[in-house]
Amino acid sequence: MIRQAPAPILLLMLVVLCVSSSCNRKASQDLTPPKVRTPKPDPVIDHQEVKEVEQQEPEIEALEEVIYLVASIRKTGCYGHCPSFEIRLFSDGRLTYKGYAYVEKMGLYEAWAEDSLRKKLRHLVGSYQYFNFADQYPPDGSQIADLPSTYTHINLDGLQKYITNHFDSPKALRAFEEELQLLLENRNWKKLMGNESQ
Asked: What pLDDT digit, counting tens, does each position of 154-171 carry?
């Protein structure tokens, strides 16, 4: 007859057996060598590529102010003695004047606008409602060879418009052209290049 061991002894033997088996597992785990990570080799450095990167300017410097054309007026010649010139105003305040024929200033000139010029230009554009004129006159685009043409361009406050005026335009547009010419032309011009005989 098999005699059963009392319950506390069985329990004690069970605990000893569990502890000893976990110790054996831990001991066997301690015997395996630890995993060693081998460092990856450094990438090969292309010194030419490094120099090129060093020579590039930072992106912040690339965000320079973009200079654009704000206003311009150009008058073409005719078979007679019609003045032919072009005046341009840029967003940085620089103005250029180029005299082509029958004008006092022949060649290329430069000047700088006073701070209030843009305000005056806005007022002029608003008072004549420049953006409401048609894009060309006459509307069918026809021309008469011996008549001069006037081309105006305005780029203000996100609105931009070009008008080609050959003939048969509204009186208000012709008045605007005269005032725009006076507004842009009346300044101290510095000659850059052109007809040196004058």
From this structure: 999 999 999 999 999 999
* C-alpha–C-alpha distance, residues 28 and 129, integer Å: 93
Q: Is the peptide bond before 138 cis (omega within 30 degrees of 0)?
A: yes
Kindly report the backbone phi and psi dihedral angles of residue 30, in degrees, each rounded to the nearest multiple of 5, phi listed first: -65, -25
What is the rounded CA–CA span in Å between residue 133 and residue 150?
14
User: CA 138, 141, 145, 147 torsion: positive or negative?
Assistant: positive
Q: Computed from CA positions of residues 165, 168, 173, 174, in that sequence, does the dihedral angle turn out positive or negative?
A: positive
* Angle at CA of residue 89, ends 87 and 90, nearest 5°: 140
Mean pLDDT of the chain: 82
Count helices and strands in the chain by DSSP H and E runs: 4, 8
pTM over 0.70: no
Interval 5-31: pLDDT, tens: 555 565 566 666 555 655 555 544 555
Q: If you compute the radius of gyration of the chain from its CA atoms, what whole number of angstroms results?
A: 42
Reported as type and span, the H/E element at residue 85 is strand 84-90
Instruction: Work out the angle at residue 154's Cα, subtended by the Cα atoms of residues 149 and 159, and round it to the nearest 5 degrees.
Output: 135
End-to-end CA, the chain: 140
What is the per-residue pLDDT for 64?
A: 74
